[in-house]
Amino acid sequence: MTALPARRPSGLPGRPGYDLDSLLSVAVEVFIEKGFDSASMETLASRLEISKSSIYHHVSGKAELLELALTRALNALFAVLAEPGTGTGRAMDRLEYVVHRSVHVLLEELPYVTLLLRVRGNTAVERRALTRRREFDSFVTNLAVSAAEEGDLATAVDPALIGRLIFGTVNSLIEWYRPRTGESATELADAVVAFTFEGLRRRHGGYQIQGS
């Protein structure tokens, strides 16, 4: 999937100025609200109060907007896997770290991750995104398997199932979380980790929440 290109201002006289980022933000709102298949370029143009030709100045069509949006969510999640906290230490600590940071990503990129979690593979763009998302899920599952092999999982449940259950909890945030003034993403991530891992960890210790 393609990386996000640099901003390109529309610069149309007498009309609101939209760069690619702001166009993408509105497109994601429309895709979530109406579904990608039902969202038309006419709908996007109407919502933005600009002409369709102004949108085509930035992208080739709504499929490219979808790909850019899904890439943004996936790149943010995969960036977590490249962080030192994911690559060092016992597998259980690394798994907790990935969950903690993934909550941060979900909150920071909430509309984009919401869209990612709702795609069903109806288009080539969606299928590529789902393939990449499965790669992320596989990484998490392998951490759970390693944690079981290292003796840090207290439960007899299949580690692969644990990985799905953990991220089922994280992903459920898109259904009820609404940003509120003064609310800390770290506090919510701490709560998710504590709730999720309290019954899973056999030996406590090692993992430290950032800033604690």
Mass-distribution shape: elongated
Nearest-angstrom radius of gyration? 20 Å
Proportion of residues in β-strands:
under 5%
Task: Kindly state the number of beta strands.
Answer: 0
Keyword list:
elongated, mainly alpha, 212 residues, disordered C terminus, 11 helices, single chain
Give your account of this protein's structure.
With 212 residues, the chain is mainly alpha-helical. The chain has helices spanning 20-34, 41-48, 52-56, 62-81, 84-87, 91-108, 110-118, 124-149, 159-171, 173-176, 185-197.
Task: List the SSEs and their pairings.
Blueprint: H1 20-34, H2 41-48, H3 52-56, H4 62-81, H5 84-87, H6 91-108, H7 110-118, H8 124-149, H9 159-171, H10 173-176, H11 185-197
Helix pairs in contact: 1-2, 1-4, 1-7, 4-6, 4-7, 4-8, 6-7, 6-8, 6-9, 6-11, 8-9
Give the structure's gist in a few sentences:
The protein is mainly alpha-helical and 212 residues long. It contains 11 helices and no strands.
